[in-house]
Structure formats: C-alpha cells, structure tokens
Amino acid sequence: MHNFEYFTPTRVIFGKEAEKETGRLVKEQNCKKVLLHYGGNSAKKSGLLDRVCRSLEGEGIEYTMLGGVVPNPHLSLVREGIEVCKKEGVDFILAVGGGSVIDSAKAIGYGAANEGDVWDFYDEKRSPKACLSIGTILTIAAAGSEMSDSSVITNEDGWLKRGYSNDKCRCKFAILNPELTYTLPDYQTQCGCVDILMHTMERYLNHGENMEMTDGISEALMRTVIKNARILKNEPENYEARAEVMWAGSLSHNGLTGCGTDGGDWASHQIEHELGGMFDVAHGAGLAAVWGSWARYVYKDSIERFVKFAENVMGIPHTENQEETVLAGIAAMEDFYRSVNMPTSLKELGIEVTDEQIGELAEKCTFFGRRTVGCVKALGKEDIIKIYEAAR
User: What is the rounded CA–CA span in Å between residue 142 and residue 148?
Assistant: First the structure.
C-alpha cells in the first residue's frame, strides 16, 4: 500500500428536513454577508430557496443572491459572482444545488479571495492563497463536490473544461436531505449514479499497490449504488435508496476510496471533460458513453485489478481465463448502464463526432501536448483519438 494523508473537514448534517438547520450553521461561521448561489428554477419552484432565506433571516443573517448556474458551470458567471462578492462585502458562500453550483461557488470563492484572473488556477498557472468559506445544501447526489477538494469550470473562450483541486475550497458544512432529490428527473438521477460509480472506479482501477480495507469500501460502495440505482428507476421516492446513493456520492469523492492507492487513473474523466466542454453533455452520461471503450483499451496494463472489479463488483464467476473474466465484467457494467437508460457510446449520447472534432478533443485533453492522462496506461493524443473512435 502507499502512504497517504486523509483530510475531510466538512461537517455533514444528514437526514429529513436537515435544511432547517441552515441559519444556525451559517451563523456559526461568524460571517458578515452571504452569497446565496443556486442554479435554475427548480430550487425556487420546490420552495427550497424560500425556506433557506427564511432560515437565514431568522438568524439575522444578511445575504445577496446569484442564480443561473448551468451544468458544466461557466466561467462568465463565476466572474460575475466574484464581482458581486467584492462589491457586497460577501465573506461566505452558500451553494444550494448540485455539483455544478458547488463547483461554481468554489471558483467564486477563489476569485473573491485572490487577486488576478481566477482562470489561472484552473489553467495551472498559479495557486490560490485563500478561498472564501463555503457551505452547501445538496439537491443532487452525484459529483461529491460537497465533501471534495475539487471543482470543474468551463471557459466559454475555447470551451475548455478544466478541474482544479485544493483543500482551501472544502465546504465547512454540507446539508444532505435525501428528500430534496425526490423530484429529480430519472435521467439526472442515473447520471448522478454513474458519476458516483466513476469517482470510485477511477481510484479503484489503478496501476499500483492497494489497501485491502480501501478496496473493500470501494467495492461495497459500487455494489450499493448499482443496486439502488435500479430501485430508483421504478421508485423515485424510495427514501432508503435515495439516502444510500446520496451518502455514497459524498464518500466516493472525499478521498476515502483513494486511501493507500496510487491516486487512481482519471483518464475517463479527462476524456469526458472535453466532451462536456465541446458538446455540453451531462457529465454522468458522458462518462458512461466512453468508459467501456477506455476500459477495453487499457485493461491489459492492469489486468489483475480489472479481474478483481469483475468478480467482486460485477459478480462475474472466477475462471482461469483472466481476459475472459475482464471482458465479461466490462460488458456487465455496460449492461447496467443500459438498464438505467445510460448511453454506452457517443451515438447513444446523442452526438456524432467528426474526425476533425475527435482530433480537437484529443488535443485539448492533452492540454495541447503538454501532458498524458491516466495511470493504468499513460494516454497520449493518438491513444485518446482511438478511444473516442471506439466510443462512436
């Protein structure tokens, strides 16, 4: 196993009506003014925003609001939020929504607490010295951003989608009420389940030594999400299933499933990020569309890990033929994706890419030749082109 440092400072308030604690939790942060950051109309229509505002007002907390966050959150709104924070004297950001809202809040927090262009951090030109404090009320179980050190932002200038990780952005608290996810369309629910699985698989399907305890946690988490994603397909208001998936989302991306590993692969995420940047596809659906093609391209470089995944997660019976076992495991995961109406190809995702677009996607994925992606197999531009082509 590898040496590791595990840090997860976020306070979690989990359960029914947990959002009623918002005002008290924000007041404990001793802040002067809050930016209430959210997405579209769903938070308004559900009455959640009104409840949150009343909770803040009940504690005498001053706030200003900024909505409009979209999936694959845009840098332009981040910059608008930074200006609002500076103008209004905001020193705490409350994100009400899913991963996109939380990621946008983190980027605003970086920009408001540091001089210069916030994009520099995502473009890996420099590191932030600070970040405004952030809390969240989660409405979508997916990204795990409520407990992670990462955020992903899309720059409309070139449609570059970039992630950045730093402990300074970790949320002070996360309010998790599974009931808030009842009204999600099934497509969003299942996209979230895929994202949770992928956050775990990226760490699990690696190329180094691992810790048995971490492997066991990861395998149980993946089996639990697969089981409950199927339940939610037919029972969207099943509280137990919503709760299992929501907690799995937080645990999948707070560092726990990476303890003692080499850090994981992350090539599938990098390959999907470019699809999200160019075509604005739902992140989970994009991951499902490319994962099988990635797995078939790289599995021989870490075949024992893929065998372990096939047997312990997908339930493939043990045989002496490792390659047969691995391919059966990959096929079983794709069968699961199909069972919850997730795509397993770019065509099923609803996009048809040209050869020219594939070349551009691969070029952007390598940061224009500055890097390879993945650790199971280091992937350069030509490798990534082959994976996109296989995913068509």
Answer: 12
Strands (E), the chain: 11-14, 34-38, 63-66, 92-97, 133-138, 150-155, 160-165, 173-176
Phi/psi class of residue 193: alpha, beta or left (left: φ > 0; alpha: ψ in -120 to 50)?
alpha
State pLDDT tens for residues 226-262.
Answer: 999 999 999 999 999 999 999 999 999 999 999 999 8
C-alpha span between 141 and 229 (Å, rounded): 11
Cα dihedral sign for 313, 316, 317, 319? negative
| Residue 212 to residue 62: CA distance in whole angstroms | 48
| CA distance linking residue 133 with residue 357, whole number of Å | 39
DSSP 37-100: EE-SSHHHHTTHHHHHHHHHHHTT--EEEE----SS-BHHHHHHHHHHHHHHT--EEEEEESHH
Dig out the tokens for 34 from the structure: 């809050």
- C-alpha span between 29 and 323 (Å, rounded): 54
Burial class (CB in 10 A: 0-12, 13-18, 19+), 143: buried
Collapsed DSSP state (helix, strand, coil) of residue 212: helix
- Apex 226 CA angle, 220 and 231, nearest 5: 125
Give per-residue pLDDT as tens, 145-171. Answer: 999 999 999 999 999 999 999 999 999
Which two three-digit tokens encode residue 236? 């969207």
pLDDT exceeds cutoff 90 at 335: yes
What's the rounded Cα separation, in Å, for the pair 211 and 378?
23
Q: What is the pLDDT of residues 175-202, one digit of tens each?
A: 999 999 999 999 999 999 999 999 999 9
CB 130 within 8 A of CB 170: no
Q: DSSP code of 373?
A: B
Q: Compute the distance between CA of residue 320 and CA of residue 324 in angstroms, rounded to an integer.
A: 9
Of 231, 277, 250, which Cα lies nearest the Cα of 74?
277
Q: How far apart are CA 312 and CA 220, in angstroms?
A: 9
Structure token pair of residue 377: 């197999």
CB-CB contact of 313 with 223 (8 Å): yes
Q: What's the burial of 185, exposed, middle or buried (CB within 10 Å: 0-12/13-18/19+)?
A: exposed
